[in-house]
Specification:
- The protein is of the alpha/beta class and about 220 residues long.
- About 30% of the residues lie in helices and about 25% in strands.
- The protein folds into two domains: about 140 residues, Rossmann fold (3-Layer(aba) Sandwich), CATH 3.40.50; about 60 residues, 2-Layer Sandwich (Alpha-Beta Plaits).
- It has a six-stranded mixed β-sheet with strand order 2-1-3-6-12-13. A four-stranded antiparallel β-sheet has the order 8-9-7-10.
- The protein is globular, with a radius of gyration of 17 Å.
- It binds ribose-5-phosphate.
- Ribose-5-phosphate binds next to α2 and α5.
Length: about 220
Amino acid sequence: MTQDEMKLAVAQAAIEYIRPKLNDDSIVGVGTGSTANFFIDELAKIKHLFASAVASSDETAKRLEAHGIEVLDLNTAGQLDVYIDGADEFDPHLNLIKGGGAALTREKIVAAASREFVCIVDSSKQVDILGGFPLPIEVIPMSRSYVAREIVKLDGAPVYREGVVTDNGNEILDVHDLSIVNPKELERVLNNVVGVVTNGLFANRGADVVLMSTPDGVETFKRS
Ligand SMILES: O=C[C@H](O)[C@H](O)[C@H](O)COP(=O)(O)O
């Protein structure tokens, strides 16, 4: 099974997971990335079952609209029932690293505004301890060097993601060499560094459910 076939399988599993929860008024929160793109294409097939969507990036909004799905601003939508998105890593407690596609800030906002966060991944994203994937941090451009120096004090090795500007007009530092044994605490500490807009740890609001595609089928993990 190729990785794309696994992404398609988990996207289809997510559709089956959310289908019973949908009604004519439902607004679906939709994430960003290659796995989320498979989900969007599958979601389009059931667009008669829900009202509209909220997107976590401009790219996702465009893809949803190309399928004829109405995209609402989150301020108009209010609280969402469900948010579906991929991740770069997940651990046994369903803490996540996200932001490989630089969409972490809007993703974290939509996740926070949703009752249930369903994370869709293939088995390459499963880890015991987060940090093998460099942790993305969105920063206000003028603060980039300052934030990088603060991260070095935390034993991280920040690398500027050159040429990338987020949907919010900011920049990304990718932090290597972190072994994240306490993701909730590190998420808070990083949020307190002046100039940090968002860090890619989704721990204080991690996933509620992870659907993980494997060559043998899709496994479900629920937050205990
Ligand atoms: O900023 C991007 C997002 O956090 C993505 O959800 C994450 O990088 C996973 O993307 P993919 O499904 O392409 O591996």
